[in-house]
Amino acid sequence: MRLTEGGNYLISERDGLVICQLWTRPDQSQDEGAKNAEEMVSFLSTSVLGAPCRGIIFDMRRGPRTFGPKTRSTMATLFARAVRSKVQIAIITSDAATQVLQFRGLCAGSPTVTQIFDNESAAVRWLRTQEPSKS
Length: 135
Prior knowledge:
Helix content is 41%, strand content 24%. By secondary structure, it is α/β, with parallel strands linked by helices. The protein has a single domain, classed as STAS domain (Transcription Regulator spoIIAA). The chain is globular and about 40 Å long.
């Protein structure tokens, strides 16, 4: 079920999991990308983190290969909120080394709540083993 969408993302729900698909938009500036990230995180913070949820999947396979400091700060805020809400986040990265390294850095601050994967089935398996949030 589609929940919301923005300039370079789609958020949907399937089997108790929230899936955030992101894609690259070469026509968007870094500032526009950061604005999209803020919109996405705002929606997740208000509509997902406070509700019962099995977890969130960020599918970055078609997403930007790198992100700037504004997006990093926005994502770090979401990860901190996820820790407080006890919502697990699985990130499916592309094969871009920079993207993987940037997400590893972000996940280092919340290793019990966030994990990186290279395929959807492994991410779903990990989230299915977690207790759903009861917020």
